[in-house]
Design goal:
Distance between the termini of chain B: 43 Å
Strand order of the largest sheet of chain B: 2-8-7-6-5-3-4
Number of strands of chain B: 13
Structural class of chain B: alpha/beta
Number of strands of chain A: 3
Low-confidence stretches of chain B: 381-386
Radius of gyration of chain A: 13 Å
CATH architecture of chain A: Alpha-Beta Complex
Largest interface: A-B, 29 and 26 residues
Helix content of chain B: 25-40%
Shape of chain B: globular
Order of helices and strands of chain A: HEEEHHHHH
Strand content of chain A: 15-25%
Number of domains of chain A: 1
Number of helices of chain B: 12
Mean pLDDT of chain A: 93
Oligomer: heterodimer
CATH class of chain A: Alpha Beta
Chain lengths: ~120, ~375
């Protein structure tokens, strides 16, 4: 059902957990749908120097969360803003069609975190 | 360790059943409808099997119709009755039926049928008073699942049958999950039709049966030859029919007692995990092999796949694992909120399940739940972001 890459990130997720010190958080999904993701970012000099996630959801939800943190870590905010659902799905070797829509929320969570960071700064 | 705990989905074919199926396939392959002696031999195998299955439910041999599955049996019951009794346009069923009943009813609903879907309480029992009040002059049939496939709640067929008898309405029950695990007696329980399947009880896949009480008017949904009193055309599947009859001997009273002990042990251990609940009935009104547990703040597909990594095979009512991405209708009917239904898994035992397997499963469920809860933003039920 899932690619090897998805299963790998699901079994051993990267950057798991809430950061002790973070500048902003992006929260997406809702419990009644079964998927909720929180992405925490720590920003220095307009770059994401640390990132962590917490996710309640299926294997696809957990794997996409892990993948988005891995891609975004070390990127400037300008670069990170280019990360989309497509980016995540491609890096994971594709997701089952049904999951593309419902569980591929991680990029949205990251964008939400960046938006929150920028609005706080203003 | 490989631990198969998805026996409500299907079971391992018992070796003695597989051997018999193979032997008959090789030796008694003639068409039972042929009048030569080889055909006669095959016919005898079918007659004997039919008698054995009939005896096990207190029926006459000529009241058993062989089909290819439990789903087909439910379809034949509902559609067959509808075809034979076109003046009756009302059906009563429940919100917790198997899809082969629910989807057949909803299709009939799109024609000109009115369907009453009875509510269930938080353990999955139908309300007899609601049933009684729902019965009308034009009620075709009351169709109520004997033991639910997800939560294992066993309905009181005796009482339901009594209501149907008093109101003079036909009573069909889907007994696919319950057959050989809890008694069924068509006379005592006033059952007019009942659906069975072999592969849930260590029999072959692709063979089912429908009990149809003598005198009940039914029409076939598969037309062709005159097999099965003209109610189900198709060359008989002699090996599987014999395998079905053999399989009903597999589960003994001792096996049931053992499953009940293991089930209750598993339930009591799972309940030691925080924020864990059991879906369905408690005690004797629960199927001997069914455990349905709900772990809050995590999702069922993730639990299932973590357990899969450990060689444990279960199933889940989570929307995330369903092709329609909808939560289980049965769990919602119990009154669970969608977010509560996502973290539910079904663990279904068999005759072959051992204490060692259950101990291993308990240990792995505990670590899985802990791991997934660490990932979840809802660790103790509250949002932990300040």
């Amino acid at each position: 059902m899932y690619s090897e890459k998805v299963m790998q990130h699901f079994k051993t997720p990267k950057n798991l957990g809430k950061l002790e010190h973070y500048d902003a958080v992006g929260q997406v999904g809702n419990a009644s749908c079964g998927d909720v993701m929180y992405v925490y970012i720590k920003v220095e000099n307009d770059a994401i120097v640390n990132i962590g996630f917490e996710t309640m959801g299926c294997a696809a939800a957990i794997a996409t969360s892990s993948m988005v943190t891995e891609i975004a870590k070390g990127k400037t905010l300008t670069e990170a803003k280019k990360i989309t659902r497509d980016t995540i799905s491609k890096e994971l070797g594709g997701l089952p069609p049904l999951k593309e829509h419902c569980s591929n929320l991680a990029a949205d969570a990251l964008q939400e975190a960046i938006k929150n960071y920028e609005s706080k700064k203003q | 360790m490989k631990v198969y705990l998805d026996n409500a989905a299907t079971t391992k074919t018992a070796s003695e059943v597989a051997e018999l199926v193979s032997k008959i396939s090789l030796e008694d392959y003639a068409n039972p409808s042929s009048i030569h002696s080889q055909g006669e031999n095959a016919k005898k195998i079918i007659d004997d099997s039919r008698k054995k299955i009939a005896d096990s439910i207190g029926a006459q041999a000529n009241e058993i119709i062989f089909t290819a599955s439990g789903s087909e049996s439910n379809n034949l019951a509902l559609r067959g009755l509808a075809l034979a009794n076109p003046q009756k346009k009302h059906i009563i069923t429940t919100k917790i039926e198997h899809p082969s009943v629910l989807n057949t009813c909803s299709e009939l609903e799109q024609q000109d049928y009115t369907i009453n879907y009875l509510d269930v309480d938080n353990q999955g029992f139908v309300d007899l008073e609601q049933l009684q009040k729902s019965i009308r002059e034009d009620t075709l049939v009351v169709s109520i699942i004997h033991a639910n496939n997800e939560i294992g709640t066993i309905q009181n067929l005796q009482q339901i049958g009594q209501v149907c008898k008093e109101k003079n309405v036909l009573f069909h029950t889907d007994a696919v999950q319950s057959y050989t695990k809890t008694p069924i007696n068509v006379a005592e329980q006033n059952i007019s039709l009942a659906a069975f399947s072999a592969h849930k009880l260590h029999g072959p896949k692709g063979i089912g049966a429908l009990y149809v009480k003598n005198g009940v008017q039914l029409k076939p949904i598969i037309t062709g030859g005159a097999q099965e009193k003209g109610l189900r055309a198709a060359t008989h599947n002699t090996p599987s029919i014999a395998g079905f009859a053999k399989a009903i001997e597999i589960t003994t009273i001792d096996d049931i007692k053992k499953m009940v002990e293991l089930r209750d042990y598993l339930i009591s251990e799972l309940l030691k995990i925080d924020n864990t609940y059991i879906n369905g009935a408690i005690g004797n009104d629960r199927l001997c092999n069914n455990v349905n547990a709900r772990f809050d703040f995590i999702e069922g597909e993730a639990i299932l796949l973590y357990l899969d990594q450990e060689g444990i095979y279960v199933s889940t009512g989570s929307a995330c694992s369903s092709k329609k991405l909808e939560p289980s209708k049965t769990l919602l009917a119990l009154g669970l909120k969608p977010e509560e239904s996502h973290g539910s898994i079904r663990i279904s035992l068999s005759n072959y399940t051992t204490k060692e397997e259950i101990d291993y499963t308990i240990e792995k469920i505990k670590t899985t739940v802990e791991t997934l809860r660490k990932m979840s933003p809802f660790k103790g039920g509250t949002n932990n972001v300040q």
